[in-house]
Amino acid sequence: MLRTIKVGSSLLIQGVFIGTTDDGKLLIRVGDKTFAGIPVPRLRAA
Predict the structure, then answer these.
(1) Which of these, 13, 22, 28, 29, has the minimum number of CB atoms within 10 Å of its CB?
(2) Backbone torsion region of residue 23, taken as left when φ is above 0, otherwise alpha when ψ lies between -120 and 50, otherwise beta
(3) What is the count of structural domains for the chain?
(4) Counting beta carbons within 10 angstroms of the beta carbon of residue 28, is it exposed (0 to 12), middle (13 to 18) or buried (19 or more)?
(5) Is residue 34 a part of any domain in this protein?
(6) Alpha carbons 39 and 6: distance in angstroms, whole number
(7) DSSP element (H, E) containing 18
(8) Inside any domain, residue 15
(9) What are phi and psi of 15, to 5 degrees?
């Protein structure tokens, strides 16, 4: 499943969801790299 995370003040990264860390950050994979960041809330269609 694709997820989007926020890394830093203005960088968003989208990739395949791997898991979560102990402090609540999401782990995602993009190619052969793994990133951790704050989850971006999902928007619901009207």
Answers:
(1) 22
(2) alpha
(3) 1
(4) buried
(5) yes
(6) 6
(7) strand 11-20
(8) yes
(9) -165, -170
Q: What is the per-residue pLDDT across 1-45, written as a single tens digit (0 to 9) for each?
A: 899 999 999 999 999 999 999 999 999 999 999 999 999 998 888
Q: In whole angstroms, what separates CA 37 from the centre of its chain?
A: 6
Domain hosting 18: range is 2-39
23 part of a folded domain: yes
Residue 8 lies in a domain: yes
pTM, two decimal places? 0.82
Strands 33-39 and 11-20: unpaired
Token pair recorded at residue 9: 């003040």
